[in-house]
Amino acid sequence: MRDTDYAFCVARLRANEKYMLTAKDIDELCECGSFDLALKILTEKKWLTTQTQIDECIAYQNKKLWKLLSECVPDKNELKVLCTVNDFFNIKVAVKCHFTSADASELYIYPATLDTAALTSYVNSHEFHKIGGIMGECAEKSYKAACLTENGQNADIIIDAAAINTLREYSLKNKKSLIGEVCAFICDTANIKTAYRCAKTKKGKDFVSLAVGECCRLDRGFLIKASLSGVEALSEYLRKTSYSELSETYLKSSAEYEKKCDDEIVSIIKKAKFTAFGFDPVCAYYYGKLTEIKSVRIILTSLKAGLDKNTVRERVRALYV
Q: Could you give the number of structural domains in the chain?
C-alpha cells in the first residue's frame, strides 16, 4: 500500500488531535485535589461521558481509540503490531486462568487482535494451533512449562520473551519507519528490565537465557553474561550503551524508569508530527493517546488514594500534543 493511501486517515487523526488533553489540562487535573472533581473536569472536556470508575474511564477511552483507528486505517493488518504487547499479555492471562480457574474475561486487556473468548476456549481445550503462528507456539510452550515445572514464572517468561522477539522481528523489517524505532526501543528496554530483575534475584543461566529476548541495539550475549555476573557488572555494561541514563534511572527507581521509557516513546513519535502520509502518523497518534490515557489513570488513581498534587504531578507522563 502506498503512503498516499493514508491521506484521509492522517487528516482524520490530525482533526482528532485537537480533542487530546494538553499540558494545561493535565495541570488542571493535578491541581483539582479531588477524584470527583477530576471526573467532572474530564466530562466537561468531553473526555468522558457517564463513567465513574477508573477501569470504566480507561476502557471507554481505549475503545474510542481503537474504533477510530479501525475506521480510518486503510490496511487493517498494519494495526496488528500496535497490539503485540496486549495480545501476548492476554495469552499469559489465558494460560494462568486455565490452571487457577479464574475468570480470564475480567483480566484481559484491550485493544487486542486476538479474540479473547476464542483464546480462552483454545487454551482450555489445548487447541493451541488454532491461535496460530508464534502466538500459538508460545502459548503451547508456556502451557507445557507450567505443567512440567509447576512454576508460573517459567510460563510467564516464555510469553514475555516471545513478545519481545516479535517486536524485534518487526523492527528489523521496518528499520526506517517510526513504528520500527518504537518497537526497537520497547524491545531493548524490556530486556534491560528483565536483566536487572534476574541479576537482583541471582537467577541461573538457563532462566536468564530463557527470559531475555532478542535485542535491537544491545548485544544479547553480553547482556545475559553481565546479568549473571550481578547488578554492578550489568550496570557497567549498560553504561557503554545508548541506554546508560535509563540504566542508572532503573537502579534508583523502577517506577521512574517506566516513566522515562514512556517519555522517550513520546519523544520518538513527535518526529511524525508533521508527516502527511503513511503509517507513521497512525503510530504517533496511537502511542500519544496511550500516554494520555495512562497519565489520566495515574492522576485518578493518585487522587483516589489521597496523594498530594506534587506527587501526582511527578508521576504523569509527557504528552504528545
A: 1
